[in-house]
Specification:
heterodimer, A: 542 residues, alpha/beta, 6-stranded mixed β-sheet, globular, B: 383 residues, mainly alpha, 3 strands, 3% strand, disordered N terminus, nucleotide-binding (chain A), ATP-binding (chain A), ABC_transp_ATP-bind (chain A)
Chain lengths: 542, 383
Amino acid sequence: MTSPLLSIRNLSVAFTQGDRETLAVDRVSFDIRPGETVALVGESGSGKSVTALSVLKLLPYPAASHPSGEILYGGRDLLAADENHLRRVRGNEISMIFQEPMTSLNPLHTLEKQVGEVLKVHRGMSDRAARERTLELLKQVGIREAEKRLGAFPHQLSGGQRQRVMIAMALANEPKLLIADEPTTALDVTVQAQILELLARLKREQNLSMLFITHDLGIVRKVADRVCVMTGGRIVETGATADIFSNPQHEYTRHLLAAEPKGEPPRSDPSAKKVLEGDNIKVWFPIKKGLLRRTVDHVKGVDGVDVTVRAGQTLGVVGESGSGKTTLGLALSRMIASEGEIRFRGEPINRRSFRQMRPLRREMQIVFQDPYGSLSPRMSVAEIIQEGLKIHEPGLSAEERDRQVVEVLEEVGLDPEARFRYPHEFSGGQRQRIAIARAMVLKPRFVMLDEPTSALDMSVQAQVVDLLRDLQKRHQLAYLFISHDLKVVRALANEVIVMRAGKVVEAGPADQIFHAPKTDYTKALIAAAFDIATAPTGVVSE
Amino acid sequence: MAGFQSAAQVQRVRAEAARPWLSPINRRRWQNFKANRRGYWSLWIFLGLFVLSLFAEFIANDKPIIASYKGELLFPVVVDYPEEKFGGFLAVTDYRDPFIQEEIEANGWMIWPPIRYSYRTVNSEIPEAAPAKPSWLYTKEERCSRYPLGVDDPNCTMGNWNWLGTDDQARDVLARVIYGFRISVLFGLVLTAASAVIGVSAGAVQGYFGGWTDLIFQRFIEIWSSIPVLYLILIIAAVLPPGFWILLGIMLLFSWVAFVGVVRAEFLRARNFEYVAAARALGVPNRTIMFRHLLPNAMVATLTFLPFILNGSITTLTSLDFLGFGLPPGSPSLGELLRQGQRNLNAPWLGITGFLTLSVMLSLLIFIGEAVRDAFDPRKTFR
């Protein structure tokens, strides 16, 4: 057995806020050996990111402190090391990539400057040498036509390419250890598969050690040699990946493994009443040029899509980001302007103004993706849920409104006492339940669900899916379910349309799409989602 | 595990039917505000001074607060009694007149405010030509030299001292400072409040609706704010009779612009928030969305700005007064005091008083502003 590259012993992290101290990480120990990938798995708030950040002492000191522990790297305790030593280690021997590729690159610098700077600062390379090395790195991380890309700015790159550049920067000084903090969470499943493959290749070629932080067990199974399962700031189970998956010891690990969204979507019923129909829906955004701002071209957000949503049934809309899923949903619920006829319960609504739409809003509701953003932080839960009632049933007495709020909170599985509290006191899953309650209190017939589970932890996702299915059965709701997460779509939708660049690539019953996909694009999506496998170049975006 | 514990977790919180009057976020802000000790004390000192100055008539006045005359209780501070009531002939009683004083003292009593001068009272008993030094710089003999009975005159008392001397028209400087402080702060407050209302509404409309509304309004504001304000005020002040409300109106024409930028930016950012989209999806009317969902966001930026705008308003009024284009002649104003200080360099107490009053007032406001900024800073977590 080789000696570990990095050894974390009894690490604790505490945060001080005012005069309150919270322990975020509680006596965590693990080793990373050379060439090994260790995955830290846990749900949000389990302390996995905080553990990773304390390796390089990147936490907001002095608000954060380490009551106990040591982090041994190369025979020295990094926690006790001075700033000079840390600077030599950071980015040089241990480097890090983050979740959000949109914000971790400086938008004002070209790729050459961005990557080259690391080389110049740490290695003192000349401009020419730095340029050559930059080119080599970009090729290594799979940026095609790297010479042409040297002068590109971050906004000219896709999310996946940006993450590749981040990796290039992290690898610039040939580190021994790479800390990857949810590096693929913000990316499409197809792109995620490509990035993971890249990381696996780099690890093979350069004997790189990796500390991989993720909440996604599918990824862990794909990339990690060893797994540490974290919850509530503690590591509850450590072991080889195969062992953990085949023979989980701790209750929490088993709970995590069982957390995949399960259950059957509603049975397709072509005779069910049509609730919402859209014919040849188009949302074109004009591109204006010149002094007179003449429209020279259009960005075709949604380009000629037909949809039918029936009572008690779910239409799933899937596709990569930017494929026009959300735009389609917003157009159908008349939140943005569109062309093409939209009929709600047989009645055309596409010509109605915002004001004329208002009576219909009660029957068409939307649940948004981000449960942190969709609830006003300044209103109590009761106020949030009552808002729609006040508009659509102004005659209700305060007691009657309160009674309905209590009822709907119970229906979504929250304690009615929650209505006196504010959103920030709730977890993500609870917030999403509040958002669902806000929609449900109006007794809608059609609900547009815009990625309602994407921002949630795996186990919470499963519960929200169960809740949505339950509500649908009880109230014969028609769902338009938009998601990039095919696992969730499979559990909810009985009809699926696959979108790419504003157009429908494939449409049909969910069974057929999932088991016998016709187009390469759909196949690639499914492979990436369920097996984290990459598709041949050109089929999906990068 | 993490699953249906939700309901149980909620249950653990007691049924708090009665909500505290401050929401948790506001309570945290108040704590942050208090944590800035300098700002916290500044707030109390400023409030104290301001409330005191609101009762300036009871502190510095040339009329007694209460008098009893022939068994009748009189309130000269609030009621103008004609002099014939006391056997004189003027329409308004001059209580500083020894004749009236003797008459009242003979038939009852009266209680004077601690300073027996109003801002426009001319002290005719100063020992030398105006501006006179602060009374405590004279000996008792000098101080009383102009009173009819000299040292033994009943009016040569502490109440008739000029604690900070007099200005070049023999008016008591302390009285003028008290009244001037009040008018400056009131002017600043009214101007700030009015410009906040206009500026926030304008910014809100621009930010919320965006597009052409925003574009046209923005160009208008660019033109509007490129007008040299001070010159314009000078020109208008030369045409219109200057007064409190006229000055306020003119300055309001330009001061609201300061708020538009922040509020507009805040609305532009927040109108795409999901909870705003959610409200729109609920069918909430635009006006309600702006008030209920967006305005609270903009309030943070606005409130942070407020003390500094208040400061700016006071400074502008002072500078106009200093130039002589401000409040009408004779009104108590700090700018006018500074001007007197500049003209009478031989009377340093004028300039020093004006300078100290202004700098204390403006510093207090800036300190409060800093604390407000701290209070609303979401990233401020410790200390």
